[in-house]
Amino acid sequence: MNKDQYLIRSKKADLPPRCPLLGYCDRWAQTIFFYQYFDTEVYKSRRFDYLERLIKDGIIRADFNETSFKTVAEQPEFLRANERVSYRNMCPEINLFDDQYALAFAKGTASISGEYDEFGKKDHQTGFNNYSERHYSECLEFSQYVFQNLDKKKISKYFIDKKARRTPISTKLRFEIFTRDKHKCQYCGRTIADGISLEIDHKIPVAEGGTDNYDNLITACNECNSGKSNKIL
Fold first, then answer.
1. Per residue in 210-233, pLDDT tens?
2. Statement: residue 121 has pLDDT above 50
3. What is the DSSP letter of 179?
4. How many CA atoms, within 13 angstroms, populate the side-chain half-sphere of residue 163?
5. pLDDT band at 150, cuts 50/70/90?
6. d(C-alpha 125, C-alpha 104), whole Å
7. What was the pLDDT predicted at 161?
8. What is the pLDDT of residues 1-46, one digit of tens each?
């Protein structure tokens, strides 16, 4: 998804071009920190507070922690080892719009999950695998913002039709799905004993009209879920 496609999607949904939570969202702040500081002594020393650092550098306000929208589930994850970078659940707007903070290899994409391997570059390959993209309207923090303001302003048709991401799946339903699927990834057959983590996936993605109905949910490992992205299998 490039910038034009992203902005068209905002317009069709009758939403602001860019996320109105920029500067107020914890996922946005964490994404900037991971992209900017992970390879520095600030992070390597493990003696840091990411909010304190961003405040010190003038990227976020001093009262950010008291006024921001906290990350809802899907915590951002970032790993850098030698020449390989892997990340998941980031803010989509950083790589797409904010060149000063974006990952060099992912600039101009709405990528929220992917990996880059310097040694994977050969011929015309870039070494970059873009696993998942997202529009800000699919972020759980934005959904939370919408629901909190239902009585204050008109919500766009996009959300009235329930095409956006909803609140997180309940712990009870999550347990029922895991139990039904015998705590095993339904794509590759692996379990947590194989060193993976289990997640809940939608057979029909939310972006394609899928719901949180019991029959539409399936157990998937983190790797299969990232690779599948928004595809219907």
1. 788 889 999 999 888 887 655 555
2. yes
3. H
4. 15
5. low
6. 15
7. 47
8. 899 999 999 999 888 999 989 888 999 999 988 888 766 554 444 4
Most distant CA pair in the chain, distance: 55
Our measurement of the distance from residue 139's CA atom to the centroid of its chain's CA atoms, rounded to an integer in Å, reads 7
The single-letter DSSP state of residue 168 is P
* Domain segments of the chain as ranges: 3-142, 169-226
pLDDT at 63: 85
CATH topology of domain 169-226: DNA Binding (I), subunit A (1.10.30)
Q: How far is it, in rounded angstroms, from Cα 71 to Cα 46?
A: 21
Q: Give every CB contact of residue 78 below 8 A, 6+ residues apart in sequence.
A: 34, 35, 38, 85, 86, 87, 88, 90
Nearest of 190, 156, 19, 173 to residue 96 by alpha carbon: 19
Here the tokens at position 38 are 């992970």
Phi, psi of 79 (to 5 degrees): -140, 130
Residue position matching structure tokens 């947590």: 192
In angstroms, the Cα distances linking 138 to 4, 9, 95, 182 are 17, 11, 16, 29
Residue holding tokens 């009262």?
A: 63
